[in-house]
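Page header: ASSEMBLY MODEL / two components / 706 residues total.
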Amino acid sequence: MAQGMRTAAGRTADGTVPGANGSETVDGSEPAASKGLDGFTREELHALLADMLLYRRFEEKAEEAYAIGKIGGFCHLHIGQEGLAAGSIKPLRDDDLVITAYREHTQAIAKGISPGAAMAELYGRVDGCSGGRGGSMHLFDTTVGFWGGHGIVGGQIPLGAGLAWAIKYRGGDQICLCFMGDAAVNQGAFLEALNMSAIWHLPVIYVVENNGYGMGTAFSRVSATEMEARSGAYGIPAHTVNGQDVVATYRFFEELAERVRSGAGPQFVNAVTYRFRGHSMSDPVSGTYRSKEEVDSHVEAQDPIKILRDRLMDSGLLTQEELEALDAEARALTDEAADFADASPLPDPSTLYDHVYAEINRHGRLFLDGRERGPAGGTHG
Amino acid sequence: MAELTYREALNAAMCQEMDRDDSVFLMGEEVAEYDGAYKVSRGMLERYGDRRVVDSPISELGFTGLCVGAAMAGLRPICEFMTFNFSILALDQVINSAAKMLYMTNGQVPVPIVFRGPTGAALQLSAQHSQACETYYVHAPGVKLVTPATPADAKGLLAAAIRDDDPVAVMEGELLYNVRGEVPDGEYVIPLGVADRKRPGDDVSIVTHGKMVHVALQAAAALAREEIEADVLDLRSIRPLDVDAILESVARTNRVVYLEEGWPFAGVGAQIVALIQDEAFDDLDAPVVRVTQADVPMPYAKNLEQLAKPGVKAVVEACKRVLYL
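Prediction written out in full:
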């Protein structure tokens, strides 16, 4: 971890804060560290930090693997936005549903897909969570409530409404968290889905990961209004949360999820965040649409991992040694995931036609590419 | 057997399936309070309530996506399009979501949904309301398509479509809704992928689907007056496709006309011709001829519309052409 990045006073050169590390215990009182922060215990805060470190290291490993050709196609990294993944998904119940777009590696892991199964999917291997058929943009594991992984901007929004519809139809008390990028709110699918969610009072939270740019186009250039105004036409309450502050984000979603579970109806969340990398691996970090200075200033001051680290250290809830141990654990998990992906075989070529259809009807041909062709020159016989 | 209209037969199929499975629901524009734009869902709101018979806003992309999402979660939506023309707005959810979901999730997420409504032209509805949409749907692996031509087929095929675990488009016809015919009582399901010989004959095969079955039968009657016996094969199901039935007919008549309501370019007939030349080339005594809509958007003027639509006269001429008469 980089050290000395923060601006708050009181930090020593090694990143620790004088008087921390349980020094308050000298008088025999409860260590400050065990009291926690904002209602979180020290252990819970460490867990959130560990989650974000895992997401960061996972994405950095994906970046490396992409560079050497182990991952192909499009690969959209979530670096810079980890606070939102942890803060919005970790408060959910296991049986709640998450659906999202294509910058979803960390969200998949947050909902319960193992880093190994996620990395193997990025590698296009048989042990990937989608069997190597989906790739980076289509991570799925419905057994943990992660419903993809969708590649058409805004396409997942009506699907999320449909998942919520099914919850309501069956009288369940789960909720659906439906993520989208800021650009997706300009799609008709968004408008149509919000309207239907409102008239049918669906248990869904629409979360805009507002990183300010749809690929290389600033949101302000393609929207006549502020993001918060986008749900008002449908009577859906809008909320804004700082996605870089994982603690605040967690508390916010914890409360909102329970409200929706209790029948509050659809909600719209403008989660403000920032993407530290290019739109996808094939795009530059900065250049034509945003300056290097802009990116650098966000990396400096708006890194969700640094923000939590510094708060914990300032409060005596984290030592440098603990931080290093958490990071080492994240790196180890990521290395393990990459090794798992590397060792996993490519899908068996004989499975090419598997899962095109769930039901192969007893009559007629479903595939018209000649695969089922009769003997040359022959007829049906 | 009861004599029902095609419209009543579709209604009977939906009720049959909604009675046996609570996960089946109907959503679309005007399906509930209005009883359906073409009255196919007459009485269903009263019978099943607004939980299961749901008026949607005019948001084809949105409600189709919502239905696909509900199907992903294991419900069995019947997603009604007032006409398939309007479903073009929804094709992202049909093609990118419904058709591909099972594959890209490695079998985790089936999408047991039915898309239904009329396809093709009615009378003087002009370009945007008069197109056959079959090709848009069957082009994508992952979707199935059936095209019932009679009331009995409407009941049996729609029931099968609702029970199927894949996305199935059921393409009906505005001009078919009032057609009457005998329909089996009680539970009636026709397996997907089984063609039906609507008229036997050994001289020439007219292979077709959907509303054009009736045009083919009229053409066959005209040909019979000239002592030419046409075999009218109704595919009923385009995907899965009853290849055996096609090849059997070709082997018997050695002469084939494909009749469809849609445009010729990359149309259903193009696929059938490719299949026949690939697998039954030696059975042919003449090149296969296709009769289709003229390769133009549907015009409004009565005389131009007549010219653009595939009709009995064109089918008769095509049959004579493959017979070298």
